[in-house]
Amino acid sequence: MFNIAFPDVEINFIGSINYDNDMEQELMGEAGMMTEGVVEEEIQRVIDGLGISNNIDVNYEVEQWDESFSISIKATVTFFVSNPRDTDITFSEAQEAANAIDEKLNEWSERMEYDNMVDRVHVSYVENGDTKGYKIMIDLDDEFILKMSEENYFYYEDIENQLSTAFEDSRTRYGSRLGIDSLFTRGGPMNQMIWPVLQSLDLMEGGNEYFFGKLADYEYSDGQIGDFEFDFDQYHDEETGDPMSDGYTATGEYEYQKDEEEGIKIAALLNAAYGAGDEDLREIIRGVVHDSLGGPGVLKLPVDKMNIYFELIDDDEEEVKYKLSWSANEYNFKKKADIRSHFDALEEHADWEEINDDLVTYIDDHISPERIGLPPLSDEEKMERFASQPKPMPWRSFDEPPPEQEITESKRRLKLKILRG
Q1: 25, 37 Cβ separation under 8 angstroms
Q2: Are 210 and 244 in contact (CB under 8 A)?
Q3: What is the residue-wise DSSP string for 65-91?
C-alpha cells in the first residue's frame, strides 16, 4: 500500500502488520476457492474419520503459498505406566528415562528403515487419587509421519489417502504393515518397549533379565572375570530381539601342592567337606568364599543365593585339583544397580590368592587339625592359637544381650534411680 501511494519514497519496514485474513478466507471458500481454512477442515474431517486411539493427539499446520499449500502433520502420544512410589521422580531420573526411551524407539525405527521416529520425549510422575505412575509424552518426528504416508510431501488433493496410509494398518507386497495408530496404541508394540526401559533404570521392578543379557553380550562376552570363567545362560526375546539371560555360572580350577603348607591345609579341609561329606564344613567354606568375594553387603546377594561349592577334579601324589563354582540367577537381585555392583565386586575380588588366604586364615583360627585329618597341634601351637583369639568379656555369658543393649539398660536403671531420689 505504501509503495503504491509513495512510489518515489524509500520506506524501510520493521516487523509485520497485524493482519487477520479470516474474512478473506471465508469469502474465498464461499466462492469455491481453496483456502487454508478449507484444507484444515478437510484434514480434521479425515482425522475424525480414522478413529485414532485417544492417547494419540494429531495436529496440523497449513500454510498457503500462492496457489499451493504446505501441510505439516504432527502427533503427540501419551502413555501411562502405573507404578506407585514414595517420592516424586527427580529431574535427572526423568531426563535419563526420556533419553533412554528416545534411543530405544529410534533404534527400532531405524531397524525398520523408518529413520528417526521420535522428536522429543517427556517423562513425569503423576498422582491423582489412586492413579499413580509415570506419564510419558512422545512427540513423533514430522518426517517419520510423512514416511509412513509413503509420500514425499502432504498435498490436500489426496490427504485422506495419505493419512489413512500413515495411521491405519495396511498390506503391502512385503506383508502386513502396522500403522501409527496400532504402533502407538495403549498396550501396543511401542508401549511394550517402554516397560523394559523403565525397569532397566530401576524406576520399576523387574527386567533384570534384560540387564543380564546386556552384560553377557557386551561387557563379559569373553566369559572371563578375574581367575574365573563365566557362562551366561543367554537367549533372545522373541518379540523384541533383545538379549536376555536368566543367570550365570562361574567356574575356576586350582592345583594345591601337597608339599606346601597352604596346599596341605586347604586340601585337607576340602577333602573333609566334599570328600568325607561334612555338611557343616561345606557351609563354613561357602561362607568364607562368599566373604572373600566381597560379602553380602558388596555382592548384593546372600551366600545361599550363590550356590557356592567345590568339586574334586584330580588327586595324585604331588597335588590335588579342585574346581570352585558358583551361580546366581537374575531373579535373586532386586535392582539392576545390585547386578552392576555384584559384578564390580567380582571383578575386584574373584582371584584364587585372596580366597586361599582366607581359607588358610579360617583353618588356623577356627578349625582343629584333627577334624580335617591333620596331625594335632603341639602345646606351643595351641598356646599361639589361644593367644591370637579374641577374649570374651569375663562378666558376660552367651545368653546375655549384646554390649550395646546392656549399656542402654544400665543407663535406664541409673536414670530411674536418680528420678526416684
Answers
A1: yes
A2: yes
A3: ETTEEEEEEEEEEEEEEE---SSPPPH
Cβ neighbours for 303, distance < 8 A, ≥ 6 positions apart: 286, 287, 290, 296
How far apart (Å, rounded) are the C-alpha atoms in residues 173 and 221? 39
- Are both 200 and 65 inside the same structural domain? yes
User: pLDDT above 70 covers what percent of the chain?
Assistant: 81
The answer for residues whose C-beta is within 8 angstroms of residue 82's C-beta and 6 or more apart is 131, 132, 133
Q: Are 352 and 228 in contact (CB under 8 A)?
A: no
What confidence tens digit (pLDDT) does each residue in 23-78 have? 554 544 444 456 788 888 899 999 999 999 999 999 998 888 767 788 999 999 99
Distance CA(160)–CA(226), nearest Å, equals 63
Where is average pLDDT lowest: 68-82, 133-147, 226-240, 279-293? 226-240
Q: Cell numbers of 249, please?
A: 555360572
Together in a domain, 172 and 214:
no
Q: Are 179 and 166 in contact (CB under 8 A)?
A: yes
Question: H/E element holding 121?
Answer: strand 118-128
Spell out the residues 6+ positions from residue 193 whose beta carbon is closer than 8 angstroms to its own: 101, 104, 105, 108, 240
CA neighbor of 182 nearest in space, from 164, 195, 198: 164
Strand order in the sheet with 56-65: 56-65, 68-82, 131-140, 118-128
Q: Compute CA 235 distance to the chain's CA centroid, rounded to the nearest angstrom.
A: 17
pLDDT tens, 275-310? Answer: 888 999 999 999 999 999 999 889 999 999 999 999
Let me know whether 66 and 112 are in one domain: yes
Residue 263 structural domain = 209-388
Q: Within 10 A of 351 (CB to CB), how many other CB atoms are there?
A: 18
Task: Please tell me whether residues 160 and 290 are part of one structural domain.
Answer: no
- If asked whether residues 191 and 129 sit together in one domain, one would say yes
Residue 134 confidence (pLDDT) above 90: yes
Q: 270 with 301: CB under 8 angstroms?
A: no
